[in-house]
Amino acid sequence: MKVNDVTTYEEDGRVAVVTVDSPPVNALSNAVRQGIAAAVEKAMADDAVGAVVLICEGRTFFAGADITEFGKPQVEPSLRNLQKIVENATKPIVAAIHGTALGGGLELALVAHYRVAVPSAKCGLPEVKLGLLPGAGGTQRLPRVVGVQKALEMVTSGNPISAREALSMGLLDALAEEGGLRAAAVAFANKVLDEGLPLLKVRDRTEKLEEARANPGIFDEFRKANARQFRGFLAPEYNIRCIETAVSDLPFEDALVRERALFDELMKDSQSAAQRHVFFAERQAAKVDDISADTPTLPIAKVGVIGAGTMGGGIAMNFLNVGIPVTIVETAQAGLDRGLGIIRSNYETTAKKGRLKPEDVETRMGLLTGSLDLGDLADCDLVIEAVFEQIDVKTDVFARLDAVAKPGAILATNTSYLDVDEIAAATKRPESVLGLHFFSPANVMKLLEIVRTKDTAPEVVATAVKLSKTIGKIGVTVGNGFGFVGNRILAARNTQADALILEGATPQDVDRVLYDFGFPMGHFQMRDLVGLDVGWDRNKTSSSTVREILNEMGRHGQKSKAGYYDYDENRKQTPSPVAAKVIEDFAVRQGIARRAVSDDEIRDRILYAMVNEGARILDEGIAARSSDVDIVWITGYGWPRYRGGPMFWADLEGPAKVLETLNALRAAHGDDFTPSPLIERLAAEGKAFKDA
Ligand code: 3H9
Predict the structure, then answer these.
(1) Strands annotated E in 84-219
(2) Domains and CATH numbers, the chain
(3) Using alpha carbons only, how large is the chain's radius of gyration in Å?
(4) Mutate to test the pocket of ligand 1, among 6, 22, 25, 130 (most ligand atoms within 8 A of CB)
(5) pLDDT at position 534 over 90
(6) pLDDT band per the 50, 70, 90 thresholds, residue 564
(7) What amino acid positions are annotated as catalytic residues?
(8) Does the reported pTM lie above 0.85?
(9) Closest C-alpha residue for ligand 1 atom 56
């Protein structure tokens, strides 16, 4: 029988089976909690029922609290009150888990008396990824079943563990056969009844806390070991504190109160708001406004890559990793051999670290074919060009590719800045051409800018969006315009960073301010890492910028042990007196008077210039929504997740303040800071970028 719209109740002998079906992920919404509470109550009142199985329909067990209900008025029973109903039930309750038991979902399972899962299931507490902590007892109950060290790892990484691992730790009581979960859970419930097994409560178990009680240093060691990764984030530290509380002598109920207080504090903080924004923004990015979800996609069974350099090799690995064969084409044998060798050695390094089985290295390499003949790409469904970033080189490759690629094949350019329409015009099938802008290292970085031209067919865009998910990337569809979204905003940052060091800031000052803001590295550190010579032409250089001069001196960045910084053999950086002199001399030649530049000025000029550029990009329709701009900068350029991306950050500042600051910067530093028309409009209407 139906208990409510999302919950059904059936009796299977002595066992009541409570099934929740609330797509897409059975989040613990108001309706779900009410349905479970009513069903459990019914089972408790029915003398014919001895035990309860709690199971979900669809793709997964409960994926957690319903994030869309955060901040809205609570409807009873709250998750915590529902947990009391389950934990204090007078008949055993067995949680039957498939898919992912996450967050509040796992916390609910942890108050059941027993847990059964299929081997493919995963269990985790990912709240930290939303800037939160498990606020329904997860930080108190998890260490009681998996131990303190493992619990620390799970709550601070947010990563789930497999059902087998969960079983070995005692988080699960039994594994069911794939496809046979319900029957196995009912059988388990019957066993509990037959054997008169007790109503086990995780809260009563303390044996796994003892080890940490004997070694109180475990927490600080853990903090120290992960300091780099946790830098700037509040939530990992709060999670650790909760687990510290679990091993303290505070009574369980008081520990729950403390957990709740810390949860509420995080919930109110802008970091969690930012991280929740990012969660939805990442999913939103996969939706392209004018392309309906049912647009047909083209099958991609074989991929071609042109260019076996660093970029081409990294791109190829994405497809090999998911079992798609790749043919990679170079112009000369030596370059091809070098490229193939680097791909192999990348895989071997991963295998040495234990993150890939040795046989998988061979499987992946077995899917890779090297060639010197463009004609070998004739049977590819998608060809990605990754040759030198020069328009005539690219148009020449596309004209030749057009002649050999099969009809319907998608032809993609991995350009960073160039006009994709112009590249498409070199072919007779501009509808099949688009940009796929990977970020270096292309096998690691999550971002993929999908650049559609005026002619790109909807099914070609839809295919690219789908493919990005297949290869584990976050695809953001953008319009065709100089630097698309990411590099165009980077160009705005470049302008300010270059000006600031001429006016008196040092590269170290600029980098420190950005690092302190939360970027993993500063602007000039990033340039040194990427290589100052990317895009530099030794035949055309004319000492017209500091960067050109450094390049002319052979200071190409980390690889030549000299750039804006000096580097030792271990790539350890120190401020460079040579670069400092180049900058000062250049400033003198330009007639720029050097002065003290404050950290606030550095921060404002760089960040507001980026926001202003983001606004122009939105105004021009190069990005469809402000959250897409955020995702590009978070996943491609290291904008700190807990600050939600440049446009989210600007929304926190508020449109009026953004406009006022830009006007002040314009008065002091010129027209680069002329506010974009969009910012003027938003400020006038009191609206945020997210509403634009
Ligand atoms: C929590 O539990 C707090 C408690 O500790 C304390 C409370 C007191 N709520 O990712 P997908 C939507 S915090 C609402 O593309 P997949 C998602 O937006 C929560 N909606 O699917 C998307 O919507 P749309 C802790 C949610 O198969 C759709 O479902 N839990 C939620 O690739 C499909 O999502 C988490 O953080 C939610 N909880 O991956 C788990 N989750 O179709 C978060 C998803 O409109 N979820 N949606 O774009 C996930 O990690 C993945 O969604 C999951 C499925 C692995 C479950």
Answers:
(1) 93-97, 100-102, 114-117, 122-124, 161-162, 174-175
(2) 2-267 (3.90.226.10), 303-484 (3.40.50.720), 505-589 (1.10.1040.10)
(3) 28
(4) 25
(5) no
(6) very high
(7) 107, 127
(8) yes
(9) 63
